[in-house]
Write a structure and sequence with these properties.
This protein is α/β, with parallel strands linked by helices and 193 residues long. Helices cover 36% and strands 23% of the residues. A 6-stranded mixed sheet has the order 5-4-3-6-7-8. The chain has a two-stranded antiparallel sheet with strand order 1-2. The structure holds S-adenosylmethionine.
């Protein structure tokens, strides 16, 4: 696990990036291979707050039919030269079906809103957003659900405490169900330090 410190708004956010196998495990799979095998043909995957995680690289190297997007607010920030250099190197070595997109999940870029993803992933981003603003945490989860295809999945974690893995939720069809799910996922982090 590697740590770089970035300033996101007023709060320094550690961009810890887990390697591919660790992240696949935190999303509930035994390994990257098991995670990759679970994806349907031509599935689109969005990793929100991906930082410099190597999961997208590992999967797109194994499967050319998968379209993978790593999205992070930090990709638009050139303040940390070390982070920028590592990001550039990962972008240069990325397979064609892996895209890096700078953006804030609280207000996703139009390019992202125009698309829909069968699998939305996010690990160790929500607690940072909730720490800045409870309301933004709810909006972030609602936006992740809106970016998912109905019947697809949102895998988001940790769920309640630092050591938890991600929880996997089916993307609901109705706005009411999406709001209820956003509250359920966000609530355990409210008030936590
Ligand atoms: C602790 S890192 C986790 C990285 C990776 N998901 C992992 O588990 O290894 C949290 C990441 O979330 C990103 N982030 C924080 N707030 C965000 C937001 N509003 N929109 C998009 N990314 C955000 C940070 O820039 C940081 O790279």
């Amino acid at each position: 696990m590697n740590v770089v410190r970035l300033q996101v708004g007023d709060i320094p956010t550690p961009t810890i990036h887990r390697d591919a196998d660790e992240l696949a495990q935190r999303h509930g799979f035994a390994s990257v291979d098991a995670f990759t095998d679970s994806l349907s043909e031509h599935e689109s995957v969005l990793d929100v707050g991906a930082s410099l995680s190597t999961l997208g690289h590992a999967v797109t190297r194994r499967r050319s039919d998968i379209s993978w997007t790593n999205m992070d607010i930090a990709y638009g920030d050139d303040a940390d030269k070390n982070f920028s250099a590592m990001l550039r190197s990962m972008q240069e070595s990325a397979p064609e079906n892996l895209q890096y997109l700078a953006g804030n999940i609280v207000n996703p870029p139009a390019e992202l809103r125009a698309r829909s993803f069968g699998r939305v992933l996010s690990f160790w981003m929500l607690p940072h957003i909730v720490q800045r603003s409870h309301q933004e945490g709810l909006v972030a989860v609602s936006n992740m659900l809106a970016l998912g295809t109905v019947g697809g999945t949102l895998s988001i974690g940790p769920l309640r405490s630092r050591s938890d893995n991600a929880g996997v939720f089916t993307i609901p069809a109705s706005t009411e169900d999406a709001i209820a799910l956003a509250v359920k996922v966000t609530e355990p982090w409210i008030g936590k330090k």
